[in-house]
Amino acid sequence: MTRPATTSRGEYAKTAGRRQRIVTAAVEVFAASGYRTGSLRDVAERAGLSQAGLLHHYPSKERLLQAVVDWHDEQSGKVAVEAVAAGLDPLAALVALVEHNQRNPESVGLYVVLSAEATAPDHPLHEYFVRRYAGTVSLLRARLDGAAEAGLLRRDVDRAGTARALAALMDGLQVQWLYDRESVDMAGEVRRYLAPLLAVGGR
């Protein structure tokens, strides 16, 4: 009686592992070539599958792209949860996210390539990135507000303008870092930007 359930769990794990392998391969392909140029055949080859095998799990290129975006957002979400669990203040949590990105170049490359490509109105991720940028600025503003409430931020800081400037800084640093990972310290630059904004006695 237990054998079918065991088999089912085994098949589920096998399928989940294969799907993750496909997403990992797609991240590599889309980060290197973009969504438009990167092909399903390239993804299938990297994943060690036939194109038909890939399409069994992701019936279209757009469905695969969505899975890749979900993976990227999940990784960022985990960092945020870990920062809260570690008791980091809002600004330290922001730096922790940048440090995470430095340890994951494939994620940074994917974001930079897709966000640039998606400026075209007909790109499948155009609306996603419109919402994401608005959400990023709102999240940064919320973190600055939290830092101000905790007494970490100078009272004269323009939080709305700083949130937008931070979003631009972080995106620009990612591009520079992909060109020169040895010289560009993204987390260090973000800390340097934030330092003059801290209240006396802040970090």
Structural notes for this entry:
The chain is mostly helical and 203 residues long. The chain is built from 9 helices and no strands. The protein has a single domain, classed as Tetracycline Repressor, domain 2 (Orthogonal Bundle). 76% of the residues lie in helices and 0% in strands. The longest helix is centred in the N-terminal third of the chain and has 35 residues, at 3-37. The model has no long low-confidence stretch (mean pLDDT 91).
Quickly list its features.
mainly alpha, Tetracycline Repressor, domain 2, 203 residues
List strands and helices in order, with pairings.
Blueprint: H1 3-37, H2 40-47, H3 51-57, H4 61-85, H5 90-102, H6 105-117, H7 126-149, H8 159-179, H9 186-194
Quick structural summary:
It is built from nine helices and no strands. With 203 residues, it is mostly helical. Helix 1 (3-37) crosses helix 4, helix 1 (3-37) packs across helix 6 and helix 5 runs antiparallel to helix 9.
